[in-house]
Amino acid sequence: MPKPPHFVRDYRRLVAQLAAKRPLDEAMALAVGGGDYEAIGAAEAELLIECGFAAGHSLIDVGCGSGRLSSHLSKRFGDAITYLGVDVIPELLDYARRRSAPAYRFELTGGLTVPAADGCADFVAAFSVFTHLRHVETASYLRDIRRTLRPGGLLVFSFLELPYHARIFVSTAMRNLVGKCHPENHFLSRQSIMRMGAELEFTLEKFLPRQRHGTCWQSPSDHSIAVLRAIG
Length: 232
Prior knowledge:
The chain has 232 residues and is α/β, with parallel strands linked by helices. Helices cover 40% and strands 20% of the residues.
């Protein structure tokens, strides 16, 4: 049997450790980044709405985790949207399913493909996904995500960039130095995102914020955002 990829192994280990030591709700929140579960989920939902997401649209939530986004979309839209959440950890999917509208669908995936038909989605969200993938893995996942988007569909995703996210870079380097197991952190430049997007026939809608200045030592969860549109 082939060895699972690093991101599957790392997250299985992390979720098992948290579940063994913490109450369920706390473990499920910490497993997806340690920030405020409700506040981050609400912010992700509002970002999609600002990008035009509305009732009647279909969304694929790549790396849906324990359901921060899906729980808020359930409150806002109920079954007026078509939702598919995918993740590599069954326990996270089970928790997300319990907190979401009954019509929402959740699927387990073990790699860098999306279990969905070509051109089926108006939106794809990928929050805190590419932040943990190596560049070649990000490029592969983007290719398959592009396949699932309808012409004109939007991909909205978070990423880490230097020098702004230097705090995360330093903490990652220190963990690596002492050999502490943890999901990997990886960084993308805006130039590399634009290059990969152009190769896959995306156009850049916007980066949020429009520009980053200096170095952030205070808010490691404050990821940058890219919005790409699939060319028809």
